[in-house]
Design a protein that fits this description.
The chain has 480 residues and is an alpha+beta fold. It is built from 14 helices and 16 strands.
C-alpha cells in the first residue's frame, strides 16, 4: 500500500484465545549501545542489504529517551557511494502523524475542532457535511484512496495539485458511510492538509517547520525537492530482476499524505519528543495515540496518524511509509522510552522490516520470564510428555479433569500426539490470567511440520504461583 502502514504483518502473533496486554516495566535510563550491540546492528544491516539487494539504509535508535545510535549504510545514490547519516530519505506516510499534529495544534489555537465537518472548510467534497476532521485522520471517512497501487500509475508522471487530487477522487461516491469502516485513504490526508493551509494561512510545511521542526532541531524538506545531487535516490526491482533507479513521481503527489524527507536521526528527535511529551501538549499526544472506534464499537488500533498495538507485551506507537523508491519503519515503545527508525532507498522487498525487527530484538530483549510462569511451563510440559506416552499422573488432576481423561480420551491423546516427533518449541502465549477461580495459561507447541495449542486451567495452588491441581488440559491443532 503506497504511503501506507505495515500494521499487522510486522507485529501479528498467533494467539490461542488470548489477547496480549501491556506489561508495566520500569522506565529505562539512557544507555548507549555496547560495542557488542553496535556490532550486532552493523552486522544485521549490512547482511540484510546484501541479502535483499536494498542499496542503503539509515538507522536511528532511541533508548532511555535519548538518541543513542544514528548511522547510514550502503549506496545512497549513484553519486553517493559513501553513506551519510544526515542525508534525508523520503519518509512517506510516516509524515501523516505530522499532518495530524498540525490539526491538533490548530485546535489548540481555537481555529478548529476535530469534530468539525469537512464542508465547513473545503466545499464540494462528497458528503463533506457528514465527514469529521477526526475521520480524515483516522482513515474512517469513506473517501476513496487515490494511490492504492504499489507502483506509479500513469497520472503520476504529470504534476498535480492538492485540489486536482480532490477533484478527481474526493468527489466520487464514498466507499462507505463515515465512521462505519476503516480503509486507508491518502485522499483524506490531502483534504486534511488543505484545511491546515487554509486555517494557518501558510503552506503546511512552513507551519510544521515553525511549530515543530525548528524547535526540535529537525531539518525536514519537501520530498519533491529532495532529488538530485546530494540526496538519496530511490530504487526498485521488477520481480526478482536487477535493482534499478526508480523514476520519481511528478511534483505534488505526496503532499500532506507523505510529503516529508528527513534523516533517521531527525525523525528520532520527533520520537524523543513523543516519549517526553514535549512540543505538543500531553493531551494531544494522548489523542493521537488513542485508537478510534467505529460506529459498531470496534477498532483496529489506528489513532490519528499512527497505529497502536502490543508487541511481546510492549505497547507501541508505529507507522511505516512507502514512496517511489523508498520504504520506512518508525516504531516507538513509550513504556521503555525506546524507539527504532529504519529508512531504506528501495520500495522492493522487506529489508526495512527485517532490519527493524532485528534491532528491536537487540536493543529490547524479551522481558525476564516470570518465575511462576517458568515453573508452570515446566510442569505443563511434563504433563504433555506424559500424555504423549500414554501415562498420566492423576494425582496432578482435579476431580473434573480426572473425569475428563477417560481411557478413550487418554488413548486419543497418545495416538495423535506421539507421532508428531521432536518438540522444537514449547512457549506460553499471552499473559497468565484468572478465570472462574482458576489460573489460565496457554501454550504453543511446535514440531517440525505442525503446531498445537494447549489451554490449561489450574487451581490457585500454593505460594509458588505455579498453580495447584490441573482442572483443564486441552490440545488443538493451530497453524504453524
Amino acid at each position: 500500500m503506497p504511503l501506507g502502514p505495515s500494521l499487522a504483518p510486522l507485529f501479528a502473533r498467533l494467539l490461542i484465545g488470548v489477547v496480549l496486554t501491556a506489561i508495566p516495566v520500569a522506565q529505562a535510563q539512557a544507555q548507549a549501545l555496547t560495542p557488542a550491540e553496535t556490532a550486532q546492528v552493523d552486522t544485521l544491516v549490512t547482511a540484510t542489504l546484501a541479502k535483499t539487494g536494498a542499496p542503503s539504509a539509515s538507522v536511528a535508535i532511541v533508548r532511555g529517551g535519548e538518541i543513542v545510535f544514528a548511522r547510514a549504510y550502503g549506496k545512497q545514490s549513484e553519486t553517493m557511494p559513501v553513506a551519510n547519516a544526515d542525508a534525508p530519505y523520503q519518509i512517506a506516510s510516516v509524515s501523516k502523524q505530522f499532518t495530524a499534529a498540525a490539526l491538533l495544534l490548530l485546535e489548540n489555537e481555537g481555529k478548529l475542532s476535530l469534530d468539525d465537518k469537512v464542508s465547513k472548510y473545503i466545499p464540494d467534497i462528497t458528503d463533506g457535511d457528514k465527514i469529521s476532521l477526526r475521520q480524515l485522520l483516522s482513515h474512517t471517512s469513506g473517501l476513496q484512496d487515490y494511490w492504492p497501487q504499489d507502483y506509479s500509475f500513469k497520472a503520476m508522471s504529470t504534476p498535480v495539485t492538492p485540489q486536482g487530487i480532490v477533484d478527481r477522487w474526493a468527489k466520487k461516491p464514498l466507499d462507505f458511510a463515515p465512521g462505519t469502516q476503516w480503509q486507508y485513504s491518502n485522499t483524506g490526508y490531502v483534504v486534511a492538509g488543505m484545511i491546515v493551509e487554509k486555517l494557518a494561512g501558510e503552506p503546511l510545511l512552513a507551519y510544521l517547520d515553525r511549530k515543530i521542526f525548528k524547535p526540535l532541531g529537525i531539518k525536514a524538506i519537501d520530498q519533491d525537492l529532495a532529488v538530485g545531487k546530494g540526496y538519496p535516490q530511490g530504487y526498485g526491482r521488477a520481480a526478482l530482476g536487477p535493482v534499478r533507479v526508480a523514476t520519481p513521481a511528478a511534483h505534488g503527489w505526496l503532499f500532506a499524505a507523505g510529503e516529508l524527507s528527513m534523516s533517521a536521526r531527525d525523525l528520532a528527535k520527533w520520537n524523543v519528543a513523543r516519549l517526553n511529551r514535549s512540543i505538543l501538549p500531553p493531551e494531544d499526544w494522548a489523542a493521537q495515540e488513542t485508537a478510534v472506534k467505529l460506529t459498531d464499537g470496534s477498532s483496529n488500533g489506528y489513532g490519528l496518524g499512527v497505529a497502536t498495538g502490543n508487541l511481546n507485551g510492549r505497547r507501541y506507537v508505529e507507522h511505516s511509509g512507502e514512496a517511489v523508491g523508498f520504504l520506512s519503519e518508525n516504531i516507538v515503545f513509550p513504556d521503555e522510552k525506546a524507539a527504532v527508525t529504519v529508512l531504506v532507498n528501495t520500495w522492493s522487498g522487506d529489508s526495512y522490516q527485517e532490519i527493524a525487527q532485528g534491532i528491536i530484538k537487540t536493543v529490547l530483549p524479551p522481558p525476564p520470564a516470570d518465575a511462576a510462569d517458568t515453573a508452570a511451563a515446566k510442569k505443563m510440559r511434563a504433563v504433555f510428555d506424559q500424555l504423549r506416552a500414554g501415562t498420566l499422573d492423576r494425582g496432578l488432576l482435579t476431580e473434573d479433569a480426572d473425569f475428563y481423561f477417560t481411557p478413550d480420551v487418554l488413548a486419543d491423546f497418545r495416538n495423535s500426539l506421539a507421532p508428531l516427533g521432536k518438540i522444537t518449541d514449547f512457549t506460553q502465549m499471552g499473559k497468565t490470567r484468572l478465570r472462574g477461580g482458576f489460573v489460565n495459561r496457554n501454550y504453543r507447541v511446535t514440531f517440525a511440520d505442525r503446531a498445537v495449542g494447549i489451554s490449561t486451567y489450574s487451581e490457585l495452588g500454593d505460594s509458588t504461583g505455579t498453580g495447584g491441581r490441573i482442572e483443564q488440559f486441552l490440545v488443538a491443532q493451530v497453524q504453524k
